């Protein structure tokens, strides 16, 4: 398997849509995915943290993945999140979604139990050996506790199908450390919305984004301008969106993103992982963070990036 893949640009971590009884609304999920593709995103991540992976049964994960592959129709890469309690189960799920037609898997550390660095590395090594699919290593220590440090990632350089690293630690120095040791061996993805510009400046080639579910065109514009070195043009859009981008770094990011989708008419606000609708505190913080009116002066930057 090639060590290089064609993953670059903005990949929304798409939401899974639910009915009032918390069953999955596959039709609405298909619509949400189709809309962000229509709006120009470069790829998709389904069944990630924002997609409420751990709230889904094995059958539901496959159903959501099938919907994403169908909606994509080969136009953009589809990556499926894999978050399981054991390495063996993670490899089984990775192979199952590969058969559905995904282009890769975003693999989280083994859940619940803490692990030593060599154990974390062995988790990824096991799945890489037993799953015939390109792997994106997902690091999110505030949420998943186990930190995939640059040293751990670098130790996986001999695993041909470990091809990408998504970092949500917020520490952009890690990209430099990885580059210094193994060059461009891994495709680097920003994993936090509110440090994406900084991540691109130090080598990120892609962005797994929560709020690009709500602002896909703006997200792609920021990314394209920054990748072209036009940071001065990207900065006003980045500043305009920053209050809403901060919500992606909160512990209740799923509720915040889904509520913002509902405000924008792009989805429903109901998460499955808690048996209640978005509470007033989440609604209040999301509303306060909503961007101020769009400055007319930014229109030229949006069009110039296309």
UniProtKB/TrEMBL annotation:
The keyword ATP-binding does not apply. Pyruvate binds at residue 208. Keywords: Lyase. It comes from the Bacteria. It holds the Pfam family DHDPS. One of its GO terms (molecular function) is 4-hydroxy-tetrahydrodipicolinate synthase activity. SMART domains: DHDPS. The active site is at residues 138, 166. InterPro entries: Aldolase_TIM, DapA-like. Gene3D superfamilies: Aldolase class I. Belongs to the DapA family. This is Dihydrodipicolinate synthase family protein.
């Amino acid at each position: 398997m090639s060590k290089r893949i064609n993953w670059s640009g903005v990949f929304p971590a798409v939401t899974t849509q639910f009915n009032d009884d918390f069953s999955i609304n596959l039709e609405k999920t298909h619509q949400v995915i189709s809309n962000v593709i229509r709006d120009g995103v470069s790829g998709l991540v389904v069944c990630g943290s924002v997609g409420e992976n751990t709230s889904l049964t094995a059958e539901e994960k496959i159903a959501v993945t099938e919907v994403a592959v169908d909606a994509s129709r080969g136009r953009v890469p589809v990556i499926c999140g894999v978050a399981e309690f054991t390495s063996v189960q993670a490899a089984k799920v990775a192979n199952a979604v590969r058969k559905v037609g995904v282009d890769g898997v975003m693999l989280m550390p083994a859940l619940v139990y803490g692990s030593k660095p060599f154990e974390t590395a062995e988790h990824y090594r096991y799945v890489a050996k037993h799953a015939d699919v390109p792997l994106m290593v997902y690091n999110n220590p505030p949420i998943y506790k186990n930190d995939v440090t640059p040293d751990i990632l670098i130790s996986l350089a001999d695993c041909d199908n470990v091809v990408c690293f998504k970092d949500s630690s917020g520490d952009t120095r890690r990209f430099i450390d990885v580059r210094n040791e193994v060059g461009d061996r891994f495709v680097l993805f920003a994993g936090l919305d509110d440090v994406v510009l900084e991540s691109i400046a130090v080598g990120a080639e892609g962005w797994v984004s929560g709020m690009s579910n709500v602002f896909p065109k703006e997200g792609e514009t920021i990314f394209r301008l920054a990748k072209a070195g036009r940071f001065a043009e990207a900065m006003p859009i980045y500043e305009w969106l920053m209050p809403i981008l901060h919500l992606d770094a909160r512990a209740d990011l799923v509720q915040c993103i889904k509520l913002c989708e509902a405000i924008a008419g792009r989805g429903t606000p109901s998460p499955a992982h808690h048996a209640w609708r978005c509470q007033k505190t989440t609604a209040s913080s999301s509303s306060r963070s909503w961007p101020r009116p769009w400055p007319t002066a930014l229109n030229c930057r949006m069009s110039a990036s296309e």
